[in-house]
TrEMBL record:
Lineage: Eukaryota, Sar, Stramenopiles, Ochrophyta, Bacillariophyta
Record carries keyword Hydrolase: yes
Pfam family, one: FSH1
Residue ranges of coiled coil: none
InterPro entries in the record: AB_hydrolase_fold, FSH-like_dom, LovG
Matches recorded under SUPFAM superfamilies: alpha/beta-Hydrolases
Gene3D superfamilies: alpha/beta hydrolase
Organism: Thalassiosira pseudonana (Marine diatom)
The name this protein goes by in its record: Serine hydrolase domain-containing protein
GO molecular function: hydrolase activity
Taxonomic superkingdom: Eukaryota
Length: 218
C-alpha cells in the first residue's frame, strides 16, 4: 500500500485523494497532474491506494503502485460488495483527524461522500467528487458508522460538497451523480461538457479552488 503526498508544508490544509476503479493513487495523481499542480500550491494532497488489486488488469510490472485497484466490487446480481471493508480500510490507513477535505473520482468520489457522512473524519470541511455515482450500499454503511455517534442525523450532512459530472460520461449518468448530490447533503452539482474524468481544464480547476476557498472560510 502506497500513500503519496504532494508538498511538505504541514501548515497547508490536507486533502485525502481517492482514485477511481482501475486506478491507483499513483495513476490518479498522474491523470490529474494539471489540477494537482494548481491544488498543491495551497493544499497538501495525499493519494491513497485502494485495497483490492484487480489482478486480471495488471500488466507484467513489478511496480505495485501502478497496479489497477478498486475500493469495492460488484456482484453478478448488481449489488456492490465489500463496501464496509472499504470504509474500514481508509480509516485504518489514514490519520482521520488530520484531514480537512476529501477529493474522489468515480468510486472514490462515492467513497469520499460516504466517509464524510460516516463521521469517521471529524474535521472534514469540504468534499469534491467527479464522475461519482450514487451507490445506496455506501450510504447504508455510512449510516451504520454514524449511528454510534451522538447526533447521527447531522454528521457530515452540512459539510459543503461539490459534485462534477460530464454530460457525455458513458459510465456514470448525470442523474446518478445528481442523486449522490441530493442524498449527500449541502451539495452543488456542476455538469461539464466532457466524459468520465476528473476535470483538469483551467476553468474547472478554478471552480474547485473557489469552492475550497469558500468552504474553508466558513
Amino acid at each position: 500500500m502506497a500513500k503519496q503526498s504532494d508538498g511538505d508544508n504541514n501548515a497547508k490544509p490536507r486533502i485525502l485523494c481517492l482514485h477511481g476503479k482501475f486506478q491507483s493513487g499513483s495513476i490518479f495523481s498522474n491523470k490529474i497532474a494539471g489540477a494537482r499542480r494548481k491544488l498543491s500550491r495551497g493544499y497538501d494532497l495525499h493519494f491513497l491506494d485502494g485495497p483490492i488489486v484487480l489482478e486480471d488488469e495488471c500488466a507484467n510490472d513489478d511496480d505495485m503502485s501502478l497496479a489497477p485497484r478498486s475500493w469495492w466490487l460488484r456482484s453478478d446480481d448488481g449489488k456492490h460488495t465489500l463496501v464496509d471493508e472499504a470504509l474500514d480500510y481508509v480509516i485504518q490507513h489514514t490519520d482521520t483527524d488530520s484531514y480537512d477535505a476529501i477529493l474522489g473520482f468515480s468510486q472514490g468520489g462515492t467513497l469520499a461522500t460516504a466517509l464524510s457522512l460516516s463521521g469517521a473524519f471529524p474535521n472534514i470541511r469540504a468534499v469534491i467528487t467527479a464522475g461519482a455515482p450514487y451507490i445506496p450500499e455506501a450510504f447504508e454503511v455510512a449510516a451504520s458508522y454514524s449511528s454510534n455517534l451522538d447526533n447521527p442525523n447531522k454528521v457530515g450532512y452540512d459539510t459543503p460538497k461539490l459534485h462534477l459530472v460530464g454530460e457525455t460520461d458513458a459510465l456514470v449518468a448525470v442523474e446518478s451523480t445528481r442523486q449522490l448530490c441530493e442524498h449527500g447533503g449541502n451539495g452543488s452539482l456542476i455538469v461539464h461538457d466532457q466524459g468520465h474524468l476528473f476535470p483538469t481544464r483551467s476553468a474547472r480547476v478554478q471552480e474547485i479552488l473557489d469552492f475550497l476557498t469558500d468552504a474553508f472560510s466558513r
